[in-house]
TrEMBL record, chain A:
<feature type="domain" description="OmpR/PhoB-type">
    <location>
        <begin position="130"/>
        <end position="228"/>
    </location>
</feature>
<dbReference type="GO" id="GO:0032993">
    <property type="term" value="C:protein-DNA complex"/>
</dbReference>
<dbReference type="InterPro" id="IPR036388">
    <property type="entry name" value="WH-like_DNA-bd_sf"/>
</dbReference>
<keyword id="KW-0805">Transcription regulation</keyword>
<dbReference type="Pfam" id="PF00072">
    <property type="entry name" value="Response_reg"/>
</dbReference>
<keyword id="KW-0597">Phosphoprotein</keyword>
<protein>
    <submittedName>
        <fullName>Response regulator transcription factor</fullName>
    </submittedName>
</protein>
<feature type="domain" description="Response regulatory">
    <location>
        <begin position="4"/>
        <end position="118"/>
    </location>
</feature>
<dbReference type="InterPro" id="IPR016032">
    <property type="entry name" value="Sig_transdc_resp-reg_C-effctor"/>
</dbReference>
TrEMBL record, chain B:
<dbReference type="InterPro" id="IPR003594">
    <property type="entry name" value="HATPase_dom"/>
</dbReference>
<keyword id="KW-0597">Phosphoprotein</keyword>
<dbReference type="InterPro" id="IPR036890">
    <property type="entry name" value="HATPase_C_sf"/>
</dbReference>
<keyword id="KW-0472">Membrane</keyword>
<keyword id="KW-1133">Transmembrane helix</keyword>
<protein>
    <recommendedName>
        <fullName>histidine kinase</fullName>
        <ecNumber>2.7.13.3</ecNumber>
    </recommendedName>
</protein>
<feature type="domain" description="Histidine kinase">
    <location>
        <begin position="238"/>
        <end position="448"/>
    </location>
</feature>
<dbReference type="Pfam" id="PF02518">
    <property type="entry name" value="HATPase_c"/>
</dbReference>
<keyword id="KW-0812">Transmembrane</keyword>
Length: 230, 448
């Protein structure tokens, strides 16, 4: 589904790279290089997502996000910044951003986050709160915290359930390792070891052992996707 | 405006101070001397006029004249003592031939008594009292006081000259001393500004004067700066050096990938490039975290329950350890109250400890994450049964980029322990390595 995305980025090559990638993914992109212009465009309220750099001429990214929020605009904001320390991320999220991605970034990571953000805001706007999620023959009861596949109950630990719920809420989309670390464990750093893969591996065994079709797929170089694939 | 050197200003100030103090001293002497002399004359005049009037009352004019004659010392020009008639003419004693002051009862007054040569030059202090139809004049010429005042004024002039001389001399000596001390400090600062941080200011009086205190503080600052610069140099050198290997691998792999014709194989090769790039990124991020950790403010700290935090981390890492074939245990001796921590940095440090244990101590078959209450604080420790680190090598292992030769063959940049050390310091705690007999105990000790 096509979205209107605003890019506020003063580095011309990054801006062009982002615009190209997002346009190829089917979105309508508008870009500007100045924080004040960004605030002006954001105030029109016509965008589905804003991607903003932190260090901008005119008005810095954090101030711009604060101003956007102060103006009552709820458009999801993804901050894209070279300021990568834990405290920088916390500052960004505190200013009102919905997500924070550090430069240099992989386009797969950015794309996954963009999808997650716009989906979430869609859901918040239109769908009533779901109590059940289903992906193919996989059924997740969010109230009872019970999972079954093809009618067979799959016992999951609390963290495994959270992981599966997160993947199911973004069914069909790529979910990256860092997104999982952030959302499931609330860790805003890269541990560098294969912790997420180990947990996904265990979850995958529980979801797939004894079933003919795979459901949790590895997306090379990016992350994982929960989906029934032909 | 003329800009004076510090030396010239000190000299001028010293001259001014000497001048003011000398003038004040001499002025005070001049003032008190003059006032005291007048007071003495007042007393003398009063006493004399009273006693002579008593003589007149008891013995009449004859006795008075005799008394005056006895009192007047021939040649004493300072004394005024006479009987004058109603017209002001002297009939007996020492006084101007004709008085120029009004004839009326006078207790004590200073005025010029006569117009003739002898008396006109100076003022006199006098008293006039009627005796019958005549007047009794007592008093003193002030020429003596005047000459005393002249002497003091001469002393004053001399004092001014002396002050100027001493001021110039003192000022020059002082300015030279101060200038020399300041020059020594300035020269060290100048050299430091040019990049040589090894010079120090020589302390002259073992810190008992302000210059030495300034010098000592400056020396401490230079010492710290030198340490920081040396560390920075090591970090920069090590970073450049350690980046070369992954970048070289990156380059080789890219080159190979470009040459692969099969699309699937090329994609696999490109995936490998991303892994390599991430490694470099992680290294750089860690360097930034370490250097930033020193300036993290305490408002980033949140109350954290350590047992909960450790259990959470263990939950994340236990499957990883199990997959690596290790027995992973969490041991929490007691449950201390929550303490203020930088949660993210602390988690990162603890996961670094566990990662190290998994990587280097895996051969021992077991890893324990333990929370220990000690007399000096709370220790978060990770114990393994691997080869451990010899005591002599431990300091090296904790340094930034301080990889031991035995660890060179495994991935990592030698930054993990440096980060842990920096984070421990941020929490006013410490990081230490100990022997687990066999194996390694790596612990972060936090004060409580």
């Amino acid at each position: 589904m096509s979205r209107k995305i605003l890019i506020v980025e003063d580095d011309a090559s990054t801006s062009a790279y982002l615009a190209k990638g997002l346009t190829e993914a089917g979105h309508a992109v508008e870009a500007c290089a100045d924080g004040r212009d960004g605030l002006f465009l954001a105030s029109e309220g016509i965008f589905d997502l804003i991607i903003a750099d932190r260090m901008l001429p005119g008005l810095d990214g954090l101030s711009m996000v604060s101003a956007v929020r102060a103006a009552g605009i709820a458009t999801p904001v993804l901050i894209l910044s070279a300021l990568a320390a834990v405290d920088d991320r916390v500052d960004g999220l505190k200013a009102g951003a919905d997500d924070y991605l550090c430069k240099p970034f992989s386009f797969a990571e950015l794309s996954a986050r963009v999808e997650a953000l716009v989906r979430r805001s869609d859901r918040a706007a239109t769908e009533p709160q779901k109590t059940r999620l289903s992906v193919g023959d996989l059924e997740i009861d969010l109230l009872a915290r019970a999972v079954s596949r093809a009618g067979r109950t799959i016992p999951l630990g609390a963290r495994e359930f959270n992981l599966l719920e997160f993947l199911a809420r973004h069914a069909g989309q790529v979910v990256t390792r860092t997104m999982m670390l952030e959302k499931i464990w609330n860790y805003h750093f890269d541990p560098g070891s294969n912790v997420v893969d180990v947990h996904i591996g265990r979850l995958r065994r529980k979801l797939e052992d004894g079933f003919p079709t795979p459901i949790l797929h590895t997306v090379r170089g990016a992350g994982y996707r929960l989906a029934v694939e032909a | 405006m003329i800009r004076l050197s510090v030396t010239a200003r000190i000299a001028l100030l010293s001259i001014a101070l000497a001048l003011v103090s000398n003038l004040a001293l001499v002025g005070f002497v001049w003032k008190t001397t003059s006032a005291d002399a007048i007071d003495a004359i007042h007393l003398e005049t009063t006493e004399q006029s009273e006693s002579l009037r008593a003589v007149w009352r008891s013995g009449g004019m004859k006795a008075l004249r005799q008394a005056i004659g006895n009192t007047v010392v021939p040649g004493d020009v300072s004394l005024v003592l006479a009987v004058v008639d109603a017209k002001g003419q002297t009939v007996a004693g020492v006084a101007p031939a004709r008085l120029a002051v009004p004839l009326r009862p006078t207790q004590f007054r200073i005025a010029r008594l006569g117009r003739d040569e002898l008396w006109s030059a100076r003022e006199s202090a006098y008293a006039l009292h009627p005796i019958g139809s005549d007047w009794l004049l007592t008093g003193r010429n002030l020429d003596l006081i005047a000459s005393e005042e002249r002497a003091i004024e001469r002393a004053l002039a001399l004092a001014v000259l002396l002050s100027l001389g001493l001021g110039v001399l003192g000022g020059l000596v002082l300015a030279r001393y101060v200038g020399r001390r300041l020059d020594a400090i300035a020269s060290v600062i100048e050299t430091a500004g040019e990049g040589d941080l090894s010079r120090r200011v020589i302390v002259v009086t073992e810190g008992s004067d302000a210059f030495d205190r300034l010098a000592a503080r400056l020396n401490v600052m230079l010492g710290k700066l030198e340490g920081v610069m040396a560390e920075l140099r090591i970090v920069t050198d090590s970073l450049a050096h350690d980046l070369r290997s992954p970048l070289a691998r990156l380059r080789t792999k890219t080159e190979q990938a470009v040459l692969i014709a099969d699309p699937d194989a090329r994609e696999a090769a490109l995936g490998g490039l991303l892994v390599e790039t991430d490694l470099v990124m992680r290294m750089l991020t860690m360097v930034i975290e370490i250097s930033r950790s020193g300036s993290v403010s305490r408002d980033r700290f949140v109350q954290v329950s350590l047992p909960d935090l450790l259990e959470e981390i263990a939950e994340l890492y236990a499957p990883v350890a199990e997959d690596a074939g290790l027995v992973f245990t969490v041991a929490i001796d007691d449950r201390p109250p929550a303490i203020a921590l930088h949660r993210e940095l602390m988690i990162q440090s603890i996961t670094n400890l566990i990662d190290n244990a998994l990587r280097h101590g895996a051969g021992g078959g077991e890893v324990t994450l333990r929370l220990v209450h000690r007399t000096d604080g709370i220790a978060i420790q990770v114990e393994d049964r691997g080869p451990g680190i010899a005591e002599a090598d431990r300091a090296q292992a904790m340094k930034r980029f301080g990889r031991l030769d035995s660890a060179r063959s495994t991935p990592g940049a030698g930054l993990g322990m440096a980060l842990i050390e920096a984070v421990a310091r941020l929490h006013e705690g410490r990081f230490e390595l100990a022997d687990n007999g066999p194996g390694l105990v790596a612990r972060i000790v936090l004060p409580i």
